[in-house]
């Protein structure tokens, strides 16, 4: 890599001038008396050829780094020496000094980096020395004492494995030495072009049970869950690739560390912490010469640290409650916040405990089965206890709120004891999860017994039935309420007040439609008039007095769309006028009813067409191309051309409605946010939207900007071309559509992803260009994604050249768990949509 022929020749000459072994062409693996340094352009190659050490530039050619990479894949850099002090030019020298220090010297022979903390200046010492640096076949660069006569020969003075960058390879440790406080942790690069120390860190937390934690700055973002003897509690899939990699947590007085080891037959693999804080396990496919993503974390919303707050319980299959619930015997601390889906406030105990220290207690325990155990940061661990002993110990101490087994290797209920005294956080249901025992008052246990623990097993089908019943009930209630006209007069005044309060001083010239008119228009919200329904309510078709057809969105009272969202939507849409945005015609506030009246679009939404085997033929390539361009223009208008900057935050195929001419209209602004002048980015604790369409930085950190909409647009574009859903449940080889698209693109077969219904009569150049633009939109780094203005420009000017996309991380939900448990992946993905399917 970056071989400089001149330097090569000179160095070969220099080498042969000294001790030339005769094989000048092959790179050695050692720096010792024979050769004490390498210059830019020279390399060390490990004995078996797997790893290379040398100088490289990941981005700007003038910034030179010394690093180790896989010889077969030079971009896969596993270690960087001078990540925070790049050299300016190619005059650097890596040398070993007499004391066994590795030094990287710049043009003026100052030390840019050294393996020790000594500040050495000048060149290497000339004295004969008994130390050498060798690049081992494992990828480890070691400095060892070599003198056979000396005591301690072979002792390792320094090794690169002790100083990880952003990558863990077989044999490396992630952990700490509790005695010295030294730690082996990963630090992300700043960007794919810049190996400087980035924001994200992955380290082992050795308090409580060993647990690998990803941090961004000082904020915990994700943890694997405690080590249970076989795998990390939240990563059961670790056990499934044990034929290739063995995972081990070493617990010794001087070391608590995670190590993975590869079997002889295993491919090259690496664990990389990305700039966005995502950890990926990649395996090298030597046939097709690509790195396949084996596993990654976080995988989904429930992996977000403490997503549901204290005593909350995250369930990836309950999209309707935005994934959060409380552990048994607990209720939301603040129902108001909860209904707004601000789950971080967490849950509190429903009934107080009956416990006096030293005295008798009537409390008992409820089992929460199959979970990733809570954060053990403040927990007390005793690995020698039994589970029964643990229960007794917890019962005897009034501050104990929950307990669980520490180790599941013995089978049965497990052994050992973890006791939690404070809040329990970051609990989720997970495949092959552990049982957590939560302390509850007797009254609570009695109540629960009636409901029955066995019910859990049949909970899923029952939930479905219950939902249907609840819907029927709601419809009945709504009808009943709608039939009470005597309330209407009284309602009018309330209505005026309410609307003032809600809408504030925003000056909206939007007709206020009376509830009675709406009841008439929708035939009393009859089922025949219902167009569709979603998490936030139902949509009805209505005919107003002037025979005008409208779509009426009735926000359900139990939905997350409360006053704030309603206000948002009314204020926002009333101001927006663009042919690719759905028009709001009026609204209604009646007691706690909130309704929005939109133009009626007879052709429903885009997803109804592109994902349906029969209907997809309706949309030929020219139509799809117009839809893509129309959505891009609508989005551009939201971002720039209206007086405000508006981030939609929930762009997806079901939110694109089609009018009679199949012209697209973006709808559903319930999640939209307005940015102030000059505001570039915002953060939220409440990540709302639809998984798969969310950009990594938004799903992970709640950071959104116009570029998060660009990402969603990219996903949508690829869906339109391929006719495949982002979740891609039908192609088991790929985690999602992005992976599929990228692989085909990389293999030079992008046309293979084009939907068969348009493949025959589309223009390949146009389609290719669209796929290319789509891939640019879904880049991991928001800075690498184009603004919508560029997207519109690129779509409309077919001769402009496009930049080269990089491989996306495939952040979207991988669904590996769901697959293993035999659940219907497609429905669980679709259920994650939390907005309504308007116009259905
Ligand atoms: C890089 O170049 C600048 C100016 O050319 C110089 O001031 C600086 O010291 C150089 N840094 C290194 C590490 O060589
Ligand atoms: C340098 O490292 C030695 C141990 O190798 C340590 O005792 C000393 O405190 C370190 N000095 C500094 C300035 O960090
Ligand atoms: C590198 O090694 C060569 C001989 O092997 C020596 O002449 C040269 O001075 C060394 N360079 C540095 C910077 O130590
Ligand atoms: C260990 O991690 C802490 C941060 O948790 C860091 O400040 C410290 O420098 C690390 N120690 C070593 C030896 O890397
Ligand atoms: C890793 O595997 C190799 C053989 O494949 C073995 O020699 C080595 O001891 C193992 N290391 C650990 C830490 O298990
Ligand atoms: C552990 O205790 C500290 C100090 O009280 C607290 O800040 C932290 O949030 C606790 N961690 C957990 C997981 O409860
Ligand atoms: C009860 O548990 C807490 C937390 O584990 C501990 O600090 C305290 O000493 C225990 N009390 C008794 C009486 O064992």
From TrEMBL:
Positions of the UniProt region annotated as Disordered: 816-840
EC class name: transferase
Chain positions recorded as ATP binding sites: 553
Coiled-coil portions: none
PROSITE patterns linked to this entry: BULB_LECTIN (PS50927), PAN (PS50948), PROTEIN_KINASE_ATP (PS00107), PROTEIN_KINASE_DOM (PS50011), PROTEIN_KINASE_ST (PS00108)
Localization per record: Cell membrane
SMART domains linked: B_lectin, PAN_AP, S_TKc
Gene expressing this chain: LOC123042567
Domain Bulb-type lectin, chain residue ranges per copy: 29-156
TM regions (residue ranges): 458-478
E.C. code: 2.7.11.1
Domain Apple: 355-441
Record organism: Triticum aestivum (Wheat)
A single Gene Ontology CC term: plasma membrane
Reaction(s) the record says it catalyses: L-seryl-[protein] + ATP = O-phospho-L-seryl-[protein] + ADP + H(+); L-threonyl-[protein] + ATP = O-phospho-L-threonyl-[protein] + ADP + H(+)
Compositional bias of kind Low complexity: 824-840
Annotated keywords: ATP-binding, Cell membrane, Disulfide bond, EGF-like domain, Glycoprotein, Kinase, Membrane, Nucleotide-binding, Receptor, Serine/threonine-protein kinase, Signal, Transferase, Transmembrane, Transmembrane helix
MF GO annotations: ATP binding; protein serine kinase activity; protein serine/threonine kinase activity
Family classification: Belongs to the protein kinase superfamily. Ser/Thr protein kinase family.
Protein name per Swiss-Prot or TrEMBL: Receptor-like serine/threonine-protein kinase
């Amino acid at each position: 890599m970056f071989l400089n022929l001149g330097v090569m020749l000179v160095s070969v000459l220099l080498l042969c001038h000294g001790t030339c072994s005769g094989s000048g062409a092959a790179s050695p693996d050692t720096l010792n008396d024979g050769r004490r340094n390498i210059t830019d352009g020279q390399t060390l190659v490990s004995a078996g050829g797997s790893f290379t050490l040398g100088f490289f530039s990941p981005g700007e050619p003038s910034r030179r780094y010394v690093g180790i990479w896989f010889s077969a894949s030079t971009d896969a850099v596993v270690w960087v020496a001078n990540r925070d002090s790049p050299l300016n030019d190619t005059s650097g020298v890596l040398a070993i000094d007499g004391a066994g220090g590795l030094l990287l010297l710049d043009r003026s022979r100052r030390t840019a980096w050294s393996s020790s903390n000594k500040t050495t200046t000048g060149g290497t010492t000339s004295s004969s020395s008994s130390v050498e640096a060798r690049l081992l076949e494992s990828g480890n660069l070691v400095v060892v004492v070599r003198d056979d006569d000396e005591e301690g020969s072979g002792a390792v003075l320094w090794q690169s494995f002790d100083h990880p960058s952003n990558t863990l390879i077989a044999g490396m440790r992630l952990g700490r030495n509790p005695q010295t406080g030294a730690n082996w942790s990963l630090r992300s690069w700043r960007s794919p072009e810049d190996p400087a120390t980035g924001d994200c860190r992955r380290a082992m937390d050795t308090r409580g049970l060993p647990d690998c934690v990803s941090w961004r700055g000082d904020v915990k973002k994700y943890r694997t869950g405690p080590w249970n003897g076989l795998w990390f509690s939240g990563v059961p899939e670790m056990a499934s690739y044990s034929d290739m990699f063995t995972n081990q947590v070493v617990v010794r007085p001087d070391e608590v560390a995670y190590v993975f080891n590869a079997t002889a037959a295993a491919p090259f693999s690496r664990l990389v912490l990305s700039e966005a804080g995502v950890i990926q396990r990649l395996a090298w496919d030597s046939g097709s010469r690509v790195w396949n993503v084996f596993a990654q974390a976080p995988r989904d919303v429930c992996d977000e640290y403490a997503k549901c707050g204290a005593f909350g319980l995250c369930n990836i299959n309950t999209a309707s409650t935005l994934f959060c619930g409380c552990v048994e015997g607990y209720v939301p601390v603040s129902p108001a916040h909860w209904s707004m889906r601000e789950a971080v406030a967490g849950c509190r105990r429903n009934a107080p405990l009956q416990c006096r220290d030293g005295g008798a207690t009537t409390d008992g325990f409820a089992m929460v089965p199959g979970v990733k155990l809570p954060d053990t940061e403040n927990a007390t661990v005793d690995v020698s206890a039994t589970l029964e002993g643990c229960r007794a110990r917890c019962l005897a101490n009034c501050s104990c709120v929950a307990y669980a087994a520490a180790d599941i290797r013995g089978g049965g209920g497990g052994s050992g004891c973890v006791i939690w005294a404070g809040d329990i956080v970051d609990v989720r249901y997970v495949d092959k999860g552990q049982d957590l025992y939560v302390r509850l008052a007797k009254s609570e246990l009695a109540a629960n017994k009636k409901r029955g623990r066995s019910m859990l097993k049949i909970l899923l089908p029952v939930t479905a039935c219950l939902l249907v019943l609840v819907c029927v009930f709601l419809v009945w209630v709504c009808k009943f309420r709608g039939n009470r006209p005597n309330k209407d007069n009284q309602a009018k005044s309330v209505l005026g007040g309410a609307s003032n309060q809600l809408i504030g001083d925003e000056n909206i010239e939007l007709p206020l439609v009376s509830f009675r008119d709406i009841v008439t228009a929708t035939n009393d919200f009859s089922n025949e008039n219902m167009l569709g329904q979603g998490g936030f309510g139902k949509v009805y078709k209505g005919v107003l007095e002037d025979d005008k057809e409208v779509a009426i969105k009735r926000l359900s009272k139990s939905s997350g769309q409360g006053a704030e969202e309603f206000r948002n939507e009314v204020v926002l849409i009333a101001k927006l006028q663009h042919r690719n945005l759905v028009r709001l015609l009026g609204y209604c506030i009646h007691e706690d009813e909130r309704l929005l009246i939109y133009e009626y679009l007879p052709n429903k939404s885009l997803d109804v067409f592109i994902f349906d085997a029969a209907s997809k033929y309706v949309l030929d390539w020219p139509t799809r191309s117009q839809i893509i361009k129309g959505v891009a223009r609508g989005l551009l208008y939201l971002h720039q051309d209206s007086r405000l900057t508006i981030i939609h935050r929930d762009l997806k195929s079901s939110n694109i409605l089609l009018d009679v001419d199949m012209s697209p209209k973006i709808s559903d602004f319930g999640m939209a946010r307005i940015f102030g002048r000059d505001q570039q980015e915002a953060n939220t604790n409440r990540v709302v939207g639809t998984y798969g369409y969310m950009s990594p930085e938004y799903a992970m950190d709640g950071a959104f900007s116009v570029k998060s909409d660009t990402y969603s647009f990219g996903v949508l574009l690829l869906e339109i071309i391929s006719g495949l859903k982002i979740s891609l449940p039908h192609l088991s080889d790929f985690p999602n559509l992005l992976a599929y698209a990228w692989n085909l693109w990389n293999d030079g077969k992008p046309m293979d992803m084009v939907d068969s219904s348009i493949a025959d009569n589309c223009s390949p150049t146009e389609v290719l260009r669209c796929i290319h633009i789509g891939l640019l939109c879904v880049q991991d780094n928001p800075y690498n994604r184009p603004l919508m203005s560029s997207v519109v420009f690129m779509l409309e000017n077919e001769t402009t050249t496009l930049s080269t996309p990089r491989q996306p991380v495939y952040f979207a939900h991988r669904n590996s768990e769901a697959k293993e448990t035999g659940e219907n992946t497609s429905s669980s993905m679709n259920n994650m949509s939390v907005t309504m399917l308007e116009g259905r």
